[in-house]
Design a protein that fits this description.
273 residues; Immunoglobulin-like; Lipocalin; 18 strands; 3% helix; 53% strand; TTHA0802/YceI-like_sf; YceI family protein; Lipid/polyisoprenoid-bd_YceI
Length: 273
């Protein structure tokens, strides 16, 4: 087994579709091999002792190069080669991911009386993420929120928020978000472009998204964590109700800050509890 190598992302995940090319001191290609499903290259081609350059490529990743010395025994152990996403951006492994609502939060914050904030959250929602294998910009997000699940910790206020003055949940029971594109904003940050449908109005809304990491969970699955924020104007979604106090201060601010703390599980559906 003259050549062995392990191809990984920065998070330690296998890059199963990577290709290893080996050139000798003259730049001549002497070997080309593909990684297996575990991101491991094992090739039995006999190589003459000497110095070689190992180039690793994979669609969606920046190429990486490493040096290797073939000993007199004919073995060459390259070790682990780490690939970075093209453009320096990192995402979880490609494929479908399902948001776990039990370990996620969809919250909104509004100014109250001009001096403090009121925080609410939606307790019923579902969402999926599709990480594109070749072009990050083609990754997709879709989410559905039950509007009536709004919870601010005050029953009277929640009833008002469900009324026609605000969410109008009888006529518009669902709030939906569908992404239309993704733009890199740093090594682990993106701007998600999408359309938010709420109260019968569809508006473009961008999410500032950060990937917080990916790893194994105690139930045998793989999880990825994200945090996203956005700002909405209530008037953009026909929520024009307001009460103006004697001092001319609006009781409820016109701008909402949306805060999403998300855990997604690898796969098209959540595993059984």
């Amino acid at each position: 087994m003259p050549l062995t190598a392990r191809i990984r992302t920065r998070d330690g995940w296998a890059v199963s579709h990577s290709v290893v090319t080996v050139t000798d001191a003259t730049g001549t290609q002497v070997l080309r091999a593909e990684a297996d499903a575990e991101g491991v290259v094992r090739d039995t081609t006999a190589l003459a002792p000497g110095a070689y350059t190992v180039i690793v490529t994979a669609v969606g990743y920046a190429p990486a190069a490493a040096s290797s010395i073939v000993t007199a025994s004919g073995r060459a152990e390259v070790g682990t080669v780490t690939l970075a996403r093209q453009g320096g951006t990192e995402l979880p492994p490609p494929g479908p991911w399902t948001v776990d609502p039990a370990h996620s939060s969809v919250a909104a914050v509004a100014r109250h009386l001009g001096i403090s904030s009121v925080r609410g959250r939606f307790t019923e929602f579902a969402a999926t993420v599709e990480v594109a294998p070749d072009d990050i910009a083609k990754s997709r997000v879709e989410a559905v929120i039950r509007a009536a699940s709004i919870d601010t910790g005050n029953g009277m206020r929640d009833t008002h928020l469900r009324s026609a003055d605000f969410l109008d949940v009888e006529r518009y029971p669902e709030i939906t978000y569908r992404s239309t594109g993704l733009t890199a904003a740093g090594s682990d940050r993106w701007t998600v472009h999408g359309e938010l449908a709420m109260r019968g109005v569809v508006r473009p809304v961008d999410l500032d998204l950060a990937h917080l990491g990916t790893g194994a969970d105690p139930w045998g699955g793989t999880r990825a964590a994200f945090r996203a924020t956005a700002e909405l104007r209530r008037e953009d979604f026909a929520m024009n109700y307001n009460q103006v106090l004697q001092a001319g201060i609006a009781a409820i601010g016109t701008t909402l800050r949306v805060e999403l703390d998300i855990q997604a599980v690898q796969g098209a559906s959540l595993p059984a509890a």
